Amino acid sequence: MKRILCFGDSNTWGHDPVTQDRFDxxxxxxxxxxxxxxxxxxxxxxxxGGRTTVWDDPIEGYKNGREYLIPCLESHRPLDxxxxxxGTNDLKKRFSLSAYDIAQGVGVLVRVAQxxxxxxxxxxxxxxxxxxxxxxxxxxxxxxxxxxxxKSQKFAAHYERVAKELGCAYLDTGGVIVSSPLDGIHFExxxxxxxxxxxxxxxxxxxx
Length: 208
What we know:
The chain contains seven helices and five strands; from the N terminus they run E-H-H-E-H-E-H-E-H-H-E-H. The chain has helices spanning about 10-15, 30-35, 65-75, 100-115, 150, 155-165, 190-205, and strands at about 1-10, 40-45, 80-85, 125-130, 170.
């Protein structure tokens, strides 16, 4: 059985922009991914609301993706693939980051996985880097994410650059799904299902 770790934020956890609760297991994109791949794969969900790439959040705390990823890789080893979907929370105004720096931050996570011993035979597992889709018109999060719409439009190009530099697989989710117009950040149920199926096709290309 091949083991896949999905490491992300509230969109990997499954935040429902309609109910403000968590989607059921059949809707969340990592579970859709697992269903599409079949019984020869085990998909591990590691989503956390508010998680950043490498930044300490002075308000929410305990959200630094790098700090959690290191032990996370060890606890789930051996892994055949690590999928990373992060960066949206780095758009918060409190961090004052450019799209370039956010992509550099996610690149740190890619390198953490690549140099770890959490893959088969004590090697680093391959990584699939997913660029988050651009934010939609922000509503309740508008002040917290001021300036996010323009920056998020640059995610695809910067994430692709980082993926090429680090030699990892890449997928632009903005070519597949859109952020919900209800809050501008989270994915609605239909988008989760579309994303899970498209990621499954990418995984099959990578792992056979």
